[in-house]
Amino acid sequence: MQDKTYDMLSRAARSAVENAYSVYSRFSVGAAVLMDNGEIIRGSNQENVASPSGLCAERVALFYACSAYPGVRVRAIAIAARDASGRWVPDLTPCGACRQVMAEIIHRYHSDFDVILPGPRDELTIIPASTLLPAPFSV
Ligand code: THU
To answer: Which of 7, 30, 90, 94 gives 98 a disulfide partner, CB atoms 3.0 to 4.6 angstroms apart?
Structure first.
């Protein structure tokens, strides 16, 4: 059951890549978040000429998911990317800022979730989000 769901989530992440606004880096990323209510929220990186103002695909998707469904737990996030030459980038792991946002979501919902990374032959690496950022900042 989980395998099929995660395959579907990976395909959703790949489809989200096509909506990236990555005119500066030409590196297009898509993310798809599976919520506890079955909703799938897609996001893609959105860049800006003033580069820090842009946002990674993972945070676009996670922030939208949490603002649309504030009481609903995040179950999983799949991530996919294409490089400047259009090739799929396998096993793309999230940046540090996205890991800190994931840590906040684990804290907020008292619930870990899976990070799903499609590999070169469509095999899926599944990583608990809680392992991605040891000792996250917290107050
Ligand atoms: N990016 C993401 O969207 N997610 C990642 O995990 C890594 C990087 C974006 C940020 C920027 O728009 C582009 O990829 C190049 O770094």
So the answer is: 94
Intervals of the chain under pLDDT 50: 1
Strand positions, DSSP E, 1-139: 28-35, 40-44, 74-82, 114-118, 124-128
Supply the pLDDT for residue 1.
42
Q: Which of 39, 47, 58, 123 is catalytic?
A: 58
Domain ranges of the chain: 2-131
Note if 58 is an active site residue: yes
Looking at the chain, how many residues does it have? Answer: 139
- Closest CA to ligand 1's atom 8: 56
CA–CA distances in Å: residue 134 to residues 93, 111, 137: 15, 16, 9
Q: What is the pLDDT of residue 14?
A: 98
